[in-house]
Amino acid sequence: MSAPGAALLTRPPGRGGGRGRGLAMQLLLAAACAGYAVGSALGWGSKQVADFMGDFGLSGGALLAAVSCYGYARTIDPRERPAWLLFAFSSLMGACGNAVWGWYEVVLGAEVPKHSLADFAFLCFAPPAIVGLLVLAKRPVNRAGWVCLGLDSWLIGGSLLTLSWSLALANAARTAQSGTPSSVLSAALTLAYPILDIALVSIVLVLHFRRSETNRSAVNTAIAALALTVLSDALFTSPLLSAEYKSGQLLDAGWFAGSLLLAYAPWGAGRSHPGPVVPRHPRSDRPVSRPITGSLTALTPYLAAAVCTLGILYNVVDGRKVDRVVVFTGCTVVLALVIRQGIMLLDNIALTQELAQKENHFRSLVQGSSDVIMIAAPTGTLRYVSPAAAGVYGREAEDLVGTELATLIHPDDLGRVVHEVRRFLATPPAEEPTTRIECRFRSGGGEWLNVESTVNRHQGGLILNSRDVTERVRLQAQLQHSAEHDALTDLPNRALFTRRVRQALTGRRAGDHSSAVLFIDLDGFKAVNDTIGHQAGDELLVEAARRLQDSVRAGDTAARLGGDEFAALILGDGSRDRSAREYQVREIADRLRATLSQPYRISGSEVRVAASIGVAFAEPGITPSDLMRNADLAMYRAKAGGKDRVELYAPQMQTEVVRKAELAGRLRTALHEGEFALLHQPVVSLATGEVTAVAAQARWRSAQGILFTPAEFLRVAEAGEGARAVSPGAAGTFAGAASVRAGELGRWLLEEAVEEAAERHRAGHDVPVAVRMTAERLLDRGAPAASVEALLNRHGLPSGALVIELADNDPRVPFDELERRLAALRRLGVLIALDGFGSGYAAISALRRLPVDMLKLDRGLVEGVVESPRLHKITAGLLRIANDLGMQSVADGVDLPEQVMALRSMGCTHGQGMAFSGPLDEYRLRRTLVRGTFPVPGALAQPALAGGSSSGSMVTLRGSHNETPVPPT
């Protein structure tokens, strides 16, 4: 689209209205001038009307111009304001002069005197206009420019004065010299008018060639108005018209039109085209021509000298004596021309030197630049190539000159480059002066270099400033690869895998629902890190990634998501048979599982891990995150089902996740709203039936009033172990549930148990309370031993009244730190019991190193102690160890009388379970403590072991912890 067409289409609202108003003003101006001219030509119908229109009509037009210029001066830039104020004053003088003429001719009905105030007003018209035009002229930048401006004015004015003097003014001057004083004054006035007009015309011409770019339309219209006024003055002062002039004649139409045109200049001309000017640029196939105005400006001095010469020749050819004024003026014009040409010569010499210096400077910049600068003709042929081409492209600049640019660009990039160049050349330069193009460029060695070029227009062709960016492109590719691939295995990471899944679910594959995502977890990998080190674990991951990459098809994607988790995207084949597709994908998953489960040779040792794989298929409308979440759920279902297996996603898996998440949320709310209750289960001496301690247990009271046991509500918290199996939101919920169990619930249980135990002691029930805690909880920085001391001091609980049951701990817990923590607790008078004894692989090590006061047999050992001879022997051996170490023993889960008798016969000292009592609230517990004992089945039976006292109680340990020394390590 052409620039005018683009300007028309992008015209803002309201511009059409402004253009219409400008056209209406122009039509109104033309109608007024034409009407006045017609009236003048017809004599206005009567002498009275002619006198009125010739005097007051001209005065009204000039007054309108004065008001218009003054009003415009108040709204514009202060730098231009003086010029328009001077134009207003000049028009006001013209209005006053015509008003004086009207006073004599219309009001008084008399002839206008030869010398009156009108002459003074008319003489004051030209000087303000001359100064105003000088204000609007483009100001020279140096002193020589001001001199040239003055010389140009005199060249024009002097030449016009010479010509006018030769034609008419000489006679008036001679008349003034030989006449009376009145005739001298008349001649002086006769000379003043044309001289001022000559000066005004000179300034008008100078301004025409030296005008500024600010508001050109208004300035040009003002110049035209003043030129029209000067022309009318020249005709008035001519001998042919001055003697016959009458007010209201056709000559007045020129003055009237000049006044109206000056009144129109600042408003109509300045706003007829208010929109931004759209720059035009020459077509690439046309040579750029020099502006005509520039040529006329350069020829102005010579034209002025020619006019002056014509004035002198006129006198010589006519046979007249050459007037001294003509000779003097002609000589000064010639002298001014010589001076001006001398200044211009010196200026040209300075400009030539400066241009040569700049050319050398830019040549040095171009030739010394590390970038390659090339100039291409409109046909695409290289006209110039800078010497840097030898170092950048490996080709000499002379060899590239004359070469077609298209032959040097990679064929795959050529179409894109041609399209960009054509688009750039079709865009106006003001909107887009440069553009950037990146393509591959053939080097001298034949390889392709990545080149970035800044392109500019140059006489229909192009200037290309190019640089080699091959290393930058290579580095960007490496960074992109690093951002999308796992650093250890070089497989795609989670971000790239997610994008590949999104691509498989959209585009042309949007209707193919046979694509599947496999989530893979290496079972037993954590043990590899813990046993043979992280370096070996990394080697195993690298080998597993290689096996996975080799097992998938070429179009599929294998990725490492993090840790020992991998994933695979199996693209669909468009099959609509869901069962056949599931069978095919399951075969692929089984093959991957078998491949990943084969032994690994790591650091000379054979290592085995298994693979649990979850599979999820694309469904209509499913999102990438949901598809990946489904595969993750299926994978953790495979781990929960026994590991080393493949599991396909089913919708009920998500339902179960939602249910567990809701329950975990309810548990957190329940804790903060006080819905947990504290119960105590009596610990009974198996010999006497005496209640020797109580074990604190938490219960959750649901909205329906049902009390859930720890096994029931903590199972949900234990699901936090598998928090990775769900979406990030659900994972956070499960992790929060686990945090509730380990943190807030533990603190609540300890504080409630200590507080109620202190109240029972104050009531006279001197029975210790046992609270179960994990080793991680004891070592948690958020719950140091000082908090236990603070609880004991706050509630006044005596020494030996609190028993900490240490649950089976993670083997990664540092034993040294745990030993120091337990020793500090024992110094506070806290008893330590090893809970779950006989079930954990670290129990013997804990018994050997930790300061333990009593052992609590695991429920699993108690449940089958009567029926299983093998379990009977194991339990008896553990109790023998406790008796040999002089420790009390407590059996958990004693629910049957037969278990009571069997355990007592093995030497177990205390029991806890339904054989005596279940968990009790505070009211029932106090009633039980008042009673004090429970009936014991077969109470007369004697213990089979002689190591410990069957009738001893926990309370006997309150005295000194030194009575149960720790065996030597």
UniProtKB/TrEMBL annotation:
Bias type Low complexity, positions: 944-953
Cross-referenced SUPFAM superfamilies: EAL domain-like, Nucleotide cyclase, PYP-like sensor domain (PAS domain)
Domain of life from the UniProt record: Bacteria
Domain PAS: 358-428
Domain GGDEF, residue spans: 513-651
Span of domain EAL: 660-933
Disordered: region residues: 944-969
Database matches in NCBIfam families: GGDEF, sensory_box
Protein name as annotated: Membrane associated phosphodiesterase
Organism: Streptomyces cirratus
Lineage of the organism: Bacteria, Bacillati, Actinomycetota, Actinomycetes, Kitasatosporales
